[in-house]
Amino acid sequence: MSLSVQSSASTRQIAKLALPALVVLAAEPLYVLVDTAVVGHLGPVPLAAVAVGGTVMSVAVWFGTLMAYGTTGRAARRFGAGDRPAAVAEGVQASWLALGLGLLLVVLGTVFAGPVAHALAGNPETADAAAGWLRIAVLGAPGLMLAAAGNGWMRGVQNTRRPLIIVLGANVFSAVLCPVLVYPAGLGLTGSAIANVTAQSVGGALFLWSLIRETRQLRPVPSVIVQQVVLGRDLLIRGAAFQACFLSATAVASRFGVAAVGAHQIALQLWFFAALVLDAVAIAAQSLVGAALGAGDVDQAKDVARRVTLAGGAAAVVFAALVAAGASVIPGWFTGDPSVREQTAVIWPWFVGLLPFAGVVYALDGVLIGAGDIAYLRTTTILGALCGFLPMIWLAYALDLGLGGVWAGLALFVMVRLVATVTRWRSPRWLVVGATR
Known about the structure:
One of its GO terms (molecular function) is antiporter activity. The chain crosses the membrane at residues 14-34, 46-69, 94-113, 133-153, 165-187, 193-212, 235-258, 270-296, 308-334, 346-364, 376-397, 403-420. Belongs to the multi antimicrobial extrusion (MATE) (TC 2.A.66.1) family. By secondary structure, this protein is an all-alpha fold. Helices cover 84% and strands 0% of the residues. It has helices at 3-6, 11-40, 44-80, 84-120, 124-137, 141-156, 161-182, 189-214, 222-231, 233-255, 258-294, 298-325, 338-370, 374-398, 402-425. Helix 4 packs across helix 9 (222-231) and helix 7 packs antiparallel against helix 8 (189-214). The longest helix is centred in the N-terminal third of the chain and has 37 residues, at 44-80.
């Protein structure tokens, strides 16, 4: 049994895992914010094109996030039970799965970039630009997925230093490369896509090299990969519900005009950035809860859950205060277009008001994922999508409610999940002990 499992959970333990995870989680969305700011000054059409193309690429990002979360939970339980080689073996098979899924995404993205962009965009010029960006950007999917698998097993064995170095290094390099390619090199929107591919490919290669250094048992085991797919099906279904919501939201925002979808892109990327930053405590919860339950320590699992819930809520309140204070400044970082900035003013009160509730939801998501209670999260996420988010945003389109209606749908989605996760947290049904669930 590891030392961290033997001792009672402490704020210091959570911080030790959460702070490096914070940098790792923030690196990718921070790069996307830099990319959005760089492209935004090319004009409203390129910004709208990145909004559409980036939303499609977020499908790959979500798949990667789900893979990382599932791998963390499985590896953490085995690590908590005292079997580190088995925890690393989860990472080997997850990496094979990641590579296969990444290559599949490249094929699908190349073939369907045009039709998908035209389905989501509000005008042909935006659609054509988005399709061109997407055909290049999707080449980074294999690297993105390999990095997700690597993050997953390393978090499971509570190694946060190496992911920090890899992810931060790759994204800083790409953040420097992006403006160089877009402006001095004269590549425009194409330069943005190339910089995306560079960050994802470099990161994936470094995670793969780290896995090779950790173990020589690299042979794929189809039965284990299939088992991972089966065990991860609830996460994938849950991820599909998220994607249906956010793709639909972008499609509806596009129907309100180029300025509206540009403003939606800025706010949505800031929302994703906040979500992943606040997920830092959830990552700590996944690792510590999984290890505690793997070792049979129910009391420690409860203590972690309580602490991360308080930490998640407090961090979200601080973040909301910062966003509120920057309401008149932050949109100008991404666009100089007055019509786009006018539309961001519609979204901002929703953004600020929802953050504290979202912080609690993200923390409890981490607790339940670490506990392997994925089926419950799947069901409640689908419920929030079908009964909250999707009806509201399409009602907003039908009644011409604008971006306020779109973000009202997100509010309903968050509130349904808040009630569901708090209810589960207060029950004992998620406290299942053992190396596997």
